[in-house]
Write a structure and sequence with these properties.
26% helix; cytoplasm (chains A, B); 9-stranded mixed sheet; 3 domains; nucleotide-binding (chains A, B); homodimer; protein biosynthesis (chains A, B); 14 helices; proline-tRNA ligase activity (chains A, B); YbaK protein; alpha+beta; globular; BirA Bifunctional Protein, domain 2; Rossmann fold; Proline--tRNA ligase (chains A, B)
């Protein structure tokens, strides 16, 4: 393959696009790989489409290798199956909906659990038909509230999604691990630096899942890791539950005047000023903060919820959201306060919270609030707090919830040391779906005993177009992109410099020899373009090996440069083709 | 490649789908290639997707061979560019429109002229950048009024569309002919029987175009051909204009009572009964029929139109529609009659038609109505007709129009003999777009003299998913599909029959040898399935070469069957792999 830049549909740009913030967005547009067509919607230019297809090829090969079979579903999908699983509503504004000329409701598929489930139901009926894994590489749609970062989070994107179908949880684990193994191979071949983290299942309704996150400072996902190798999505981190604390010598709870202390900070100051302790000063962590929210369920009903957590921690909205899914979290409004007169704003305490208490509002606490822990908290009267309130003695919450923020230094749940936070780009997702979809859509097979059982499913995704951006986030420098060889748009960027016909003749010959040797060549054969511009373009475009045919030709050499290391060497023209073929063809 | 039927996601069906009328629809569903997801929307199962990708590969190779560059646009497109070319309105109900969460208008792309034009405008500015041909292979959408015939006319389908950009009409012709040549290669490789016909440009706004029609009795398109090689879409046929006729001896026109003759048939009977002629009987072709319609223009305005044509011909709606595009033809309503009191229903004649006459309605006649032709037509009074009315002497229409039906036996416009009609499936389309899009969207380049000129464009389409169905329409028998080798899902369908382990061992070995030789094998390794069922499946699925390992094994032979000819031969097991490899690998 020889791509000639004299005719290639490509114009590199000097300036970053105005709306671009992350390197992959800037570089992919400047180097002529993609171009914006609408917010979050991009066109792929020839070099970009080549890279995208290279990524697809890797994904396809590894999926085929585990026996997954490729199919292709429509992107335009009827409403009914998504009704059956409640996702038509649950997706809210996040999907594109439309009607056909007859008024029938359709959506643009964000993911295809329903369709795969129905298709397997249509064709299969026995445990003998299983296991089965199906996949597709397809254009998907999501109406992101804030499409940004170019193709890193677009509204139209390419995804590989696959689904496994098994007769039992044990059989499912084999399918799950096969996908996990395939994903490791895919991300290794893509040259990505990544981490596999425990994840919640999100809107997918499953019970366990892992994410493949590409480590990137510009990543949208925060995850935590420990020195001992624990890694998890923040939503999935569980809090180690401390043992109960003895409270025999804790005095009885006593309410005190604490005027003008509606915040944790003012309260702590007040405590230290008016109720000093001998052993240590009061801290935010000694207080119990009660936060009110409303949970809106898929059926539209609104349920108030109180969350009690140590005063030194905030509620993490994403973690809370993950706990209540598929319901969504909404603010507790003025109207809600009006409906619950027992609540005294700024001074709310467990005295009124809980299903058996005056407010009747369900009261869940952070797992650290174990029996015997001792708190300062609201006394449910303006300007007053309770001191020495002991969990289990003076109040009993309705349960616990993982809604508090995770902080650097928190212990990993598996005891592998203190957590630190890092950022990543979600590139892959492997989900245990369980029997949710099979039950909602009636996918059952006869088991070995002739009994109908629902099928156990898994769902697995790779962001194919996103991978192109993630690779660039992982692999670039100030001058441009540095492609890993297997996804690069070419193996060699051959640059002919100067005005000398002999240079172009030698470069033409070399291009032909390389092509014959199976080397993919991007050939800068433009006349009248300065060497400086050509060099800059080659660094920006990011083909891993750059070969310059120019002045050295007088000495019978061409320059071979490694885009990654910047190392250069001169190679005799006569040896160049075979030298490069050895270098680049695996 | 070995596809094992024991694990392949495939269930062949005994019965035709209830909604299927044409062979490709029946067979592709029954043989497990596609499956309906919604009206006109299909999922591709593993074998089907393999065939689709084989077709894509052929298209891609031939497009690359003429130097066209592959890109990939979004399918979800913003409204604005389609506003600029009026197509947002012109498409009417035929496109899917939707809004995003912010209320922005989008459509699902039916074709991409606007986007390509804007992209080239974005990157290119000089005649030196041209010629340029870009293409994509992409999922497209059309909200068909009557989706039918399976993937032959779906609402979501795969198309290859390409666009050429040139600085002059001469340069354009080269691009056009290059595409034409590539299409001939593509359709030849797809094993299709096809004809290239002259076509009107339809909604595309061009001035010349050709269609590649696959000849098929179930085709939706009617075309005509002559013994001398003329072929055209019915919409594109032009009527040879006869020379003027001398009318010196024609008596003056005379109105006669013709009571109760509102139809041509009743009129002819009345004429023969009451106005007999010496030389020959009156015929429908002696009468001039005047048909009224309304033309609705893109701006919403309604213009009445009268069409005069010989009484033995009907108006062909498609031909009429092609003449008035982008306007659409609507019925002439009661209200329209009420607004034009000069019109006497059933007895309308040229006396009131035409822009200068009492009705003021534009009056266009069939090209056969030349000067001197002599007609019987309405006298604009109830129950009366005019006889001996001579065109050019007694009335003058406002112009001519190609709206009459084309009939077998009509002369070809190029004098190559009488036309006959045939049916075909539109598979490819090559259009001269001219400067319409460039002008609407401002795509100009500097020419050699430094002058800004609009770019001349061409647009070229191949129905990729439709090709899969068209191939089946062309190539099947009662038992099933017969794939041309290059698109077949496998080269060899290897069938192991019986219960004997030795058979399966020999078949396993042969499958491995074939795979090693680069032969793609679909291997029926199912146990406990009768030979009859396996043979039926192999005929239905349609792989071109079927190899049976069974009883013959005792004699050291396997049976090799040609799916097309039905010919069988026994081949020694030991030679089978090399024999087959020679047969199937080009």
């Amino acid at each position: 393959m020889i791509l000639r830049m004299s005719t290639l549909f490509l114009r590199t740009l000097r300036d970053d696009p105005v709306d671009a913030e992350v390197p992959s967005h800037k570089l992919l547009v400047r180097a002529g790989y993609v171009r914006r067509a609408a917010p979050g919607i991009y066109s792929w230019l020839p070099l970009g489409y080549t890279v995208l297809r290279n990524v697809e090829k890797i994904v396809r090969e590894e999926m085929d290798a585990i026996g997954a079979q490729e199919v292709h579903f429509p992107a335009l999908l009827p409403r009914e199956p998504y009704e059956a699983t409640n996702r038509w509503e649950e997706y809210g504004d996040n999907i594109f909906r439309l009607q056909d000329r007859k008024g029938g409701d359709y959506l643009l598929g964000p993911t295809h659990e329903e369709m795969f489930t129905l298709l397997v139901k249509d064709l299969y009926s026995s445990y003998k038909d299983l296991p089965l894994s199906l996949y597709q590489i397809q254009t998907k749609y999501r109406d992101e509230a804030r499409p940004r970062a170019g193709i890193l989070r677009g509204r139209e994107f390419v995804m590989k999604d696959s689904y496994s179908f098994d007769v039992s949880d044990e059989a499912f684990m084999k399918s799950y691990l096969a996908h996990r193994g395939a994903y490791i191979k895919i991300f290794d071949r893509l040259g990505l630096e990544y981490v596999i983290v425990k994840a919640t299942s999100g809107a997918m309704g499953g019970s366990a899942s892992e994410e493949f996150l590409v480590t990137a400072v510009n990543g949208e996902d925060t995850y935590v890791r420990s020195p001992g190798g624990y890694a998890a999505n923040v939503e999935a981190v569980t809090t180690p539950v401390p043992p109960p604390v003895a409270y025999d010598d804790v005095p009885a709870a006593h309410a005190e005047d604490t005027p003008d202390t509606p915040t944790i900070e003012t309260l702590v100051d007040h405590l230290n000023a008016h109720f000093p302790r001998d052993d240590r000063r009061w801290q935010a962590g000694d207080t119990l903060k009660n936060v009110l929210v409303v949970v809106r369920h898929p059926d539209g009903s609104r349920e108030p919820l109180a969350i009690g957590l140590p005063g030194d921690r905030e509620v993490d909205e994403k973690r809370l959201q993950a706990q209540v899914e598929p319901a969504v979290v909404e603010p507790f409004t003025e109207a809600d306060f009006a409906a619950h007169p027992a609540l005294v704003r700024g001074y709310i305490g467990p005295g009124v919270l809980g299903e058996k208490n005056p407010s009747g509002i369900r009261y869940l606490v952070d797992p650290r609030v174990v029996e015997g822990t001792r708190w300062v908290t609201g006394a449910d009267e303006p300007g007053r707090h309770v001191i020495d309130l002991v969990a289990g003695r003076d109040f009993t919450p309705d349960g616990t919830i993982e809604a508090a923020e995770v902080r650097a230094g928190d212990p990993a749940p598996d005891g592998s040391g203190p957590l630190e936070t890092a950022r990543g780009i979600e590139m892959g997702h492997i989900f245990q779906l369980g029997r949710t979809y099979a039950e909602a859509l009636g996918l059952q097979v006869l088991d070995e005993n002739g009994k109908l059982v629902p099928v156990t499913m898994g769902s697995y995704g790779v962001g194919v177009s996103r991978a192109v951006a993630a690779i660039v986030e992982n692999s670039h420098d100030d001058a441009g992109i540095i492609w890993p060889r297997e996804v690069a748009p070419a193996d060699v960027h051959l640059v002919a410099t100067g005005k000398d016909d002999a240079v172009f003749e030698a470069a033409d010959r070399l291009a032909g020899e390389l092509d014959a040797a199976g080397v993919r060549v991007l050939y800068d054969d433009r006349r009248g373009v300065s060497p400086g511009v050509k060099f800059k373009d080659s660094e920006l475009i990011g083909v891993p090996t750059i070969v310059v045919v120019g002045r050295g030709l007088a000495d019978g050499v061409v320059e071979v440069k490694d885009r990654t290391t910047g190392e250069r060497e001169n190679v005799a023209v006569a040896d160049a083709a075979s030298h490069l073929a050895r270098l680049v063809v695996p």
